[in-house]
């Protein structure tokens, strides 16, 4: 590879439900589907279509020669809207969102109310290594992403993933220390439909674009900055 990019999925109905639950002080996020089946919201569909118009107007030499998507519906549908008919579009479960185990569907308030002992464990272990019962740590997700990166066989590769994918690619490609990674993630929100990308320079990866989202507004969709529970609540 000499270029790699990642697009966060368009706004999902789960993103919207989480915002409602967090702002309302609820303990549980009202999502009926399993995480893998949460669809795009109407705004997320508009963002996916805007991505499609952006790619359609791009010179073909700037297109990725390999596209890999998370198997989660919100990412798959974003990839399909953005690059429908691409000759090399794969799905890989190593790009899925972080699994939260017993903390699934809980807001920040819900975790504190129902599992206060887990907050104690999280403070002791740190966010990067803390693994909820039945779930994954950030380090677990980094491990499967590291495995995926070794298997990619394109020159220009575009991934469709999740908010945590953007953060952990900086950790893996740029070798950010744990403390810097978590400070960066704490102070950043990845817009839905945003692109981050890196280019290869002298044997190292250099950040080229960070959370680029102006293409959405330019092609008729509004960016949204809805956070994921996988990077915030747990």
Automatic annotation (TrEMBL):
InterPro entries: His_Pase_superF_clade-1, His_PPase_superfam, PG/BPGM_mutase_AS, PGM_Phosphatase. One of its GO terms (cellular component) is cytoplasm. Keywords: Glycolysis, Isomerase. This is Histidine phosphatase family protein. Gene3D superfamilies: Phosphoglycerate mutase-like. Signal peptide: none annotated. GO terms for molecular function: phosphatase activity.
